[in-house]
C-alpha cells in the first residue's frame, strides 16, 4: 500500500488501536534496548541483567544496568504527537511495548504500557510509589529502607493481567489496527492481533516486512516519515 492510501485508511477509521514498538521511540533518541548494537554491547547478558533473579540476588548490578535505560531528556516525537492529535476525531487506543513512557508524556488518553514503564517506580517493602527522579538518585527508599524498583516486566516475571485484559478488549473493538515500528516478534504482545474482529483492517508501518498470519496492508517506511505526512 502507498503512503497516501495508508493515511486515508487511518482517516476513515473510527476506532483505531496502535500497537507500538521501539521504532516509535528511536526518533526521540532512545535506542532499541533489545538490539545488541545498542546499550547491551560489551556487557553482561541483558536477559540476566533485566531478570527477577538479578534484581533479587545482585540488586546493585540490576540498578546500575537499569539506570542506563533512562533517557530523562527524551521527549515525545512527531509519532507520539500525531497519535495524540488523532484523538480529536477518532477513538484512539495505544498498546505499547516500550517502557519509556513517551505516550504518557505525550498525553495520549488511552495507553497500555504492555511491559510497564520505567517512570512508574515503587518500593518493594512498603509498596509506596516513588518518583523516578528519586529512584535515579538511590534505589533505597528513604522512608523505610526498602528497595525501589521500576514497574517494568522483568525476565521471569508475568505480565499484568489488567494490561492483558484491557489490551484484548481494545483490539476486539477496533476497526483498524496499526502495527508501528516493531518487528512484532515478542510474544504475547504479538498474539494480541489474534483477538481482532475479522472485519477489522490491519496496517503495518515498519522499515522491514513482518511475519503476520493475518491479512494486512504494509507500508515499508520509518514510522517517523509516515507520521510526518499524516
Ligand atoms: Zn518503602
UniProtKB/TrEMBL annotation:
Xref: SUPFAM superfamilies: DHS-like NAD/FAD-binding domain (SSF52467)
Binding-site residues, Zn(2+): 123, 126, 141, 144
Chain ranges of the Deacetylase sirtuin-type domain: 1-230
Family matches, as InterPro entries: DHS-like_NAD/FAD-binding_dom, NAD-dep_sirtuin_deacylases, Sirtuin, Sirtuin_cat_small_dom_sf, Ssirtuin_cat_dom
Keyword list, A-Z: Metal-binding, NAD, Transferase, Zinc
UniProt keyword annotation of Zinc present: yes
Transmembrane feature ranges: none
E.C. designation(s): 2.3.1.286
The keyword NAD is assigned to this record: yes
An example Gene Ontology molecular-function term: NAD+ binding
Taxonomic superkingdom: Bacteria
Residue positions of the active site: 115 (proton acceptor)
NCBIfam families cross-referenced by the UniProt entry: PRK00481.1-1
Protein name per Swiss-Prot or TrEMBL: protein acetyllysine N-acetyltransferase
Originating organism: Vagococcus hydrophili
Lineage: Bacteria, Bacillati, Bacillota, Bacilli, Lactobacillales
Amino acid at each position: 500500500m502507498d503512503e497516501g492510501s495508508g493515511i486515508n485508511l487511518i482517516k476513515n477509521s473510527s476506532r483505531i488501536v496502535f500497537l507500538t514498538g521501539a521504532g516509535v521511540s528511536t526518533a526521540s533518541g532512545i535506542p532499541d534496548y533489545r538490539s545488541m548494537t545498542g546499550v547491551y554491547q560489551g556487557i553482561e547478558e541483558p536477559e540476566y541483567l533485566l531478570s527477577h533473579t538479578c534484581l533479587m540476588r545482585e540488586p546493585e548490578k540490576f540498578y546500575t544496568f537499569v539506570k542506563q535505560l533512562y533517557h530523562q531528556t527524551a521527549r515525545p516525537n512527531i509519532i507520539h504527537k500525531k497519535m495524540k492529535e488523532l484523538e480529536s476525531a477518532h477513538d484512539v487506543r495505544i498498546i505499547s511495548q516500550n517502557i519509556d513512557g513517551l505516550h504518557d508524556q505525550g498525553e495520549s488518553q488511552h495507553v497500555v504500557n504492555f511491559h510497564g514503564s520505567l517512570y512508574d517506580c515503587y518500593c518493594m517493602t512498603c509498596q509506596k510509589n516513588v518518583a523516578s527522579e528519586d529512584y535515579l538518585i538511590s534505589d533505597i527508599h528513604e522512608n523505610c529502607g526498602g528497595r525501589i524498583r521500576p514497574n517494568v516486566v522483568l525476565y521471569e516475571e508475568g505480565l499484568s493481567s489488567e494490561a492483558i485484559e484491557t489490551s484484548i478488549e481494545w483490539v476486539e473493538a477496533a476497526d483498524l489496527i496499526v502495527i508501528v515500528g516493531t518487528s512484532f516478534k515478542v510474544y504475547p504482545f504479538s498474539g494480541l492481533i489474534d483477538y481482532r474482529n475479522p472485519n477489522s483492517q490491519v496496517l503495518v508501518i515498519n522499515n522491514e516486512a513482518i511475519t503476520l498470519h493475518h491479512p494486512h496492508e504494509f507500508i515499508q517506511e520509518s514510522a517517523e516519515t509516515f507520521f510526518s505526512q499524516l
